[in-house]
Amino acid sequence: MSGGSRVLVVGAGYIAGQVGRRLAALGHHPVLSSRHRPDTPGTRGLDWLPADVLDHDSLDRLLATARPDAVVTVHGPSDITWCEANPEAADAAHHGGARRIAALLEGRRALMISTDNVFPGDRPSYGESDPTAPANAYGRAKLAAEQALLATGDALALRVSLVYGWDTAGLRPNFFTTCALRLAAGQPVSVPDDHWNTPVLADDVAAWTAALLTSDVTGVLHLGGPTRLSRLDWARHIARAQGADPALARPAPRDDTAYACRPRNACLHSERAATIPELAGLDPVDVREASTRLIAAGEEQPP
């Protein structure tokens, strides 16, 4: 893929918007796609086309209209608790959608943004060579989707750890946004002290995605932040960065929260990234540093 390429982004949520904006800033021509036209600050100004990943004919029309040089997939429901309660629907969207997209690629390069939930969570962190054993229905659906796209030959599954950034306009604001808003308002949050992540800033996901699309890297690659911490530790850091009482972040066992179906250790590290020239200078930022910076900047949204 060269500069000025047309890139179809299958999805129109928070991460898709961040990827689209990064691609546009680099001179590419991104087109987002989803069932309903998005209306959030992060997607405004980006081209959009209607599509339904459950409908092969809809995707066929999408590819014919968009005429992409490359495809990024960020489709399907990301509510892990919902997916656990609706495993067949989750598989239909993630796996079924990926199968349909794969059938239409016709040699185009594809990059799928995947998840740390493909692992069971019994190790402190996971690299690309570690065996998968999905912790939940979401992880099973995403792993099957990876396999469908990787079978095309010129595809990369970029597994990301917990993604964060300001997302006040989304249907389900991410953990950082939810904690920052509640704690700033003096409201308590109950979060696990036994659930670990390596959070990664949305800007870093977008930067890696754009860089990797122009590479010949295939297979699986991990993107996690450089810091492993519990949700409770992170929430208390957010509180301190806002001048709020850290005690507002209250510990709760993972099994007693909405995180019960997540792997206890949802942490990633990469065994491959240091060998990829396109990623030079794109080291992911520390979560505490980025959280402090985001809070200092306020709830800024793209124009």
TrEMBL record:
RmlD-like substrate binding domain sequence ranges: 6-275
SUPFAM superfamilies in alphabetical order: NAD(P)-binding Rossmann-fold domains (SSF51735)
Record-linked InterPro entries: NAD(P)-bd_dom_sf, RmlD-like-bd
Superkingdom to which the source organism belongs: Bacteria
Pfam families found in the cross-reference section: RmlD_sub_bind
Name the record gives this protein: Sugar nucleotide-binding protein
